[in-house]
Amino acid sequence: MSKAFTKEEDGTENVRLDDLPQSPHPNLVTPSGLSDLNTRLVDRRLHLVKLREKPDEIDRKLAVAVIERDIRFLEGRISRAIPIDPESHPNGIVAFGAEVDVLNEDDQQLTFKIVGEDEADPARGLIAPYSPLGVALLGGELGSSVEWHKPTGSVDLEIVAIRFQ
């Protein structure tokens, strides 16, 4: 029988879900990224308290297990967080926390910000430092070209602006 189900002394079954996998990469975070992680943790803890106050329901047990798993995940992310102040980096070189304007091969300007994995949202231009685009941009200098290796082929990007906010 799986250890996910254990009997308590009162005879009720508790559900313990396996932990969510943690990234193998260092957990670099911006100040806002760390704040977001802490906010998410507080929200999940509050939700757990409210859920435990409800009458005993079958669905509640699984919901509690999901929230407990989320809390363990967030606690792990926070405990391994490495806060990086983007403003501490020298100007002119792409580093963690930089907002970067690039020109693609079609002279279209695109803007990306290199943020922690928990903040990453490529659709909004927020990219992780370990993503192919993040790897291509990191260390790039103002005016230089970098090669972004995509599944569909490589793209040359010219770095036209670097900002740290």
TrEMBL record:
Biased composition (Basic and acidic residues): 1-19
Gene3D superfamilies, per database record: Transcription elongation factor, GreA/GreB, C-terminal domain (3.10.50.30)
Alphabetical list of Pfam families matching this protein: GreA_GreB
InterPro entries documented for this protein: GreA/GreB_C_sf (IPR036953), Tscrpt_elong_fac_GreA/B_C (IPR001437), Tscrpt_elong_fac_GreA/B_fam (IPR023459)
GO biological process: DNA-templated transcription elongation; regulation of DNA-templated transcription elongation
Annotated stretches, region: Disordered: 1-32
Superkingdom: Bacteria
Gene Ontology MF terms in the entry: DNA binding; RNA polymerase binding
Annotated Transcription elongation factor GreA/GreB C-terminal domain residues: 90-163
Protein name: Transcription elongation GreA/GreB family factor
Organism: Yoonia ponticola
